[in-house]
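User: Can you fold this complex?
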Amino acid sequence: MDINIKEVARKAGVSIATVSRVINGKEGYSDLTRQKVMRAIQDLNYKPNALARGLLNQKTQTLAIIFPQVSDMFTGRVLRGVEAAAHQENFSVIVCKTDGSHVRTMRHLELLAEKRVDGIVFASEILVKEYSDFIQRLKIPLVVLSGESDDPGIPCVRCDDQKASFTATSYLIGQGHTQIGMLYGGRKGKLDEITRVVGYHEALSHFHVPFDPHKVITSEGFGFQEGKTGAAQLLDRFPNLTAIFAASDEMAVGVIAAAYERGIRVPEQLSVVGYDDLPIAEMTTPPLTTIHQPLYKMGFKAASMLLDHIHGREDLFSSVVFPHTIIERGSVSRP
Amino acid sequence: MDINIKEVARKAGVSIATVSRVINGKEGYSDLTRQKVMRAIQDLNYKPNALARGLLNQKTQTLAIIFPQVSDMFTGRVLRGVEAAAHQENFSVIVCKTDGSHVRTMRHLELLAEKRVDGIVFASEILVKEYSDFIQRLKIPLVVLSGESDDPGIPCVRCDDQKASFTATSYLIGQGHTQIGMLYGGRKGKLDEITRVVGYHEALSHFHVPFDPHKVITSEGFGFQEGKTGAAQLLDRFPNLTAIFAASDEMAVGVIAAAYERGIRVPEQLSVVGYDDLPIAEMTTPPLTTIHQPLYKMGFKAASMLLDHIHGREDLFSSVVFPHTIIERGSVSRP
DNA sequence: CTGAAAGCGCTTACAG
DNA sequence: CTGAAAGCGCTTACAG
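Assistant: Here's the predicted assembly.
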């Protein structure tokens, strides 16, 4: 990694300014010159130094994505979308995992600031004021993905959780269910502040099915274990339950496991609806009926918004809400 | 992002050299000076520019990981390990997805070269000569993870696939199985060139169980669908099969799904052993008995090797082989 | 304990 | 069509 533009210039018998012009496809040299330069670059295996270049034009061609310890599968999809959009324009993407820790988040932010990344996707964690203030003081473009933000002025890419929950619950009711439990796994709070629970509640009300807060169980995370434990509780408390709506696919898989352990057949005796439509949703037996969140597209969109802004193609302030759909597979039947 | 070391120096009433010393914790300034500088940094919200710094000392504090379109879960674990090791030393990690495409791989390599990353983890794809040549001409430290390399001189982190397959197959034989099928999903080739198949074969021979090449099915990928399709073929061809060893957990889940569709009960009528020990292995019904590959640790180790080399703590040439273990869960019973 | 100056590898007016 | 020179924001001998 030792040869630089000077050596290329010497070898080609031109000035470094000319080499630079050729590399960047600018105007102002003869065809012969171009050929000489190109050959020298080839011969020396020269790669322009992005650091030097970045220092000049204050651009790094780099995006960062920040996320907590989320489900691998969830993260994976979003990351793919971000990477795809970035790669299309020859941007690199730096990944930062925070484990939900404040300290780690700030440390990452500090590092990204020093590295002068061109944009940040903040994914599926709560964007507290300290973070957004930090980022905005640095004037780094920011998009929040699928998380909650304390600041409505920050552009955001997400699904309408409330509507999606409404859809899932209504679907179950449409199949004839009235004894429907719900499992949720995010930050604790009053039930009427959790959008997914609100959507569930609304659907029940809309169809005149009584709402029982005890049929909603919230736990720390969205994982398999939480789903399994939650379902066990629900099933013990309400033996006549015929359906459970889980707020993530992993939780839904946990429900299936809990049912299996109790000898309860899915879907004959218990219907299950998940949320996310991750790869596992197709792998369970029976395959999972679930709410599809277009995670790849959302990641792609978030990165595109950043890129559009960086290249001055578009301003960055509007949020975008992606439509959800319900994917019918095999985990729901009539009660 | 407009304030630089000069402004800090002016504000603190010192030279930029002194500011630099304070920032980098070098010697040579009074306590009073230090305080003045620190205050100026605070007040101005100054963040040193890593590009300028990198340009000087030829270091970017950045690692890259390159992988193809692999299973999300597989990738996720490795990535976590790499990220954890990197973050510990304040390194960032750039992710590059190649989709297994040669063009994309070269484009990524080109970008990484220009960005002057300090090291590269090449994960779970075949490192063809063109790639390794490219990287070595650039003198970027390289570690191959869990992939095959055409060049034995390149440091590598992996599991002993052959032994692991031997373990899995022996385990099944130990449980009393003799009719054992195998599913594999990597690059095509003669059976005796695929290490996992060789391990399977060895175990059979070792216990005097006849080997039938028709009981081994290889397909393009390691995914759920390939497992399901492969298992269907196997089950149709050999109705008296009592066990299947799948070369990935996703394939094993596919086996369970295929069995379920045919009304074959797992493990009562068919035992299944997987490979990887991904999160899904715990989520299936029944939970999957599988070979545990310490993917997180492997990712961590690969990054650590790079870091040790970068910091001159250790040379980079030895490969490391991680031990595998078999995790007994519920998908195997006696025939 | 501190500062002036060179230099890392580029790009970009400016002058010709 | 081409080159000399300034400058991006730092670090690091060197001199005091």
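The domain at 161-294 of chain A is CATH 3.40.50.2300 (Rossmann fold). Chain A touches chain B through 59 residues (CB under 8 Å).
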